[in-house]
Amino acid sequence: MLDRVSNTPVLPPEIARRRTFAIISHPDAGKTTLTEKFLLFGGAIQMAGQVRAKGEARRTRSDFMQMEKDRGISVSASAMSFDYGKNRFNLVDTPGHSDFSEDTYRTLTAVDAAVMVIDGAKGVESQTQKLFEVCRMRDLPILTFCNKMDRESRDVFEIIDEIQENLAIDVTPASWPIGIGRDFIGCYDLLQDRLEIMDRADRNKVAESVKINGLDDPKLADHVPAELLEKLREEIELVRELMPAMDQQALLDGTLTPIWFGSAINSFGVKELMDGISNFGPEPQVQSAEPRKVSPDEKTVAGFVFKVQANMDPKHRDRVAFVRLASGHFKRGMKLTHVRTKKVMTIANPVLFLASDRELAEEAWAGDIIGIPNHGQLRIGDTLTEGEAIRVTGIPSFAPELLQVVRAGDPMKSKHLEKALMQFAEEGAAKVFKPSIGSGFIVGVVGALQFEVLASRIELEYGLPVRFEPSQFTSARWVHGPKAAVETFANANKAHIAHDHDGDIVYLTRLQWDIDRIERDHTDLTLSATKEMM
Ligand code: GDP
């Protein structure tokens, strides 16, 4: 059934109430703090500070290593489900550090919306811009939270201008701050014509809201000092004149972002933002796939793997595949077809990630994220269905930008190293190439910090000290073309050829000139910087 106005499916209530989203930000803008407050108001934790204490993906390397040690726990922070009012929120965590952006980009394929956090003193920062562009590619609706308004911040009009200019999206203020820095007292809620007063004394308390009757209500003067009130009235008048009003369809189309001003650490503005997610959505969306799209209201279950985490418990070498359900009503024990291998899997122990713990998922609906423990069958990009051969599309794979040779500290252990590397390659943590000539492996990553994290994980999870060394190559290209032509090419260029973890042929070089020449001389071959996740 289609809604007559929007022409979108009318979803069953259990699906329609789901809100699956990620928070994106530049490091330090307040993503962790905001996440904590979401969980607090969602009743998922009792006290703010728990997320931090558990070592969520942190800014610094040492913190990240600690998180690696705490894997079992940190993983529950990868996708957190909790109820807020009538809605079920699925908050999917994105790693904060820019070096993990590949993971972040894939995560964004599993959500229906993003909350963009910016620091009121800094505005749009480099990482915000990059992440925003990925959301844009997918037309993801974006809700903006301008944080740290309790401190000296930039001029509000300036911040809004900057978002409009740099990100090319219309902005509509959902709230408007009153006073700046130490004089900040709260916000005027433009959506509900309410005054929200911040309580600096109790950081976990929800702000007091004062129902008023528009900006001329004399009650305003009881709460807002005269000079701030005058300024507020002027500014709101300007806002209403110059800026677009809230428009749900424009938000859903990704052309308009509502912005809330607040202070995550003071729990201020957070509930209004959560209400915004509840009220404006979006609901679970249609998923692009081949040969046909998947709509959330379909009766049968379909889902896809957007993240794999290996060795969550080093004793068991298990892996958890994070699956976003694209359609249907999933029940524990269901048999699903793994489309890539055409094998049927019984999903006996699905995990639902409630903020405090992992729990067996008895059931889940389109929009939810479930974890499926497995021994390596499930890979990023895989689709699970009730039998139909559908393949979800649009999960990006990135060209490795940095290549290094990895060697086991103990040369006798190179077989072990191979096994460890293959696991990380399948998990999507790195690209691994085995050169045709010579020993050792070449590892390709997107950000330099990934090398250190890999070294630490290989040592921690496999008891294998390794070292990374510079490689003679700087670029890797997958060689595509007719099988015979690819093989002839590979045999003639052995010194430059390697195989990836799937056995596919990769050309390694340090000269762009080489790549151009090959493409000119071998018109039947293409050299591609990425490989679609299959
Ligand atoms: P993340 O790197 O984006 O996850 O940022 P965090 O949530 O860890 O916050 C970075 C720093 O900003 C921490 O020291 C927080 O305590 C602080 N912070 C977060 N929200 C606020 C806020 O509303 N006001 C102020 N003054 N500081 C904040």
Automatic annotation (TrEMBL):
Main location: cytoplasm
Ranges where the Tr-type G domain occurs: 16-285
UniProt keyword terms in alphabetical order: Cytoplasm, GTP-binding, Nucleotide-binding, Protein biosynthesis
Coiled-coil region: none
Annotated binding of GTP, by residue: 25-32, 93-97, 147-150
PROSITE patterns reported for this sequence: G_TR_1, G_TR_2
Cell compartments where the protein resides: Cytoplasm
A Pfam family reported for this protein in Swiss-Prot or TrEMBL: RF3_C
Family matches, as CDD domains: RF3, RF3_III
Domain of life where this protein originates: Bacteria
Gene3D superfamilies: P-loop containing nucleotide triphosphate hydrolases, Peptide chain release factor 3, domain III, Translation factors
Role according to the record: Increases the formation of ribosomal termination complexes and stimulates activities of RF-1 and RF-2. It binds guanine nucleotides and has strong preference for UGA stop codons. It may interact directly with the ribosome. The stimulation of RF-1 and RF-2 is significantly reduced by GTP and GDP, but not by GMP.
Family: Belongs to the TRAFAC class translation factor GTPase superfamily. Classic translation factor GTPase family. PrfC subfamily.
Protein known as: Peptide chain release factor 3
Organism: Pseudohalocynthiibacter aestuariivivens
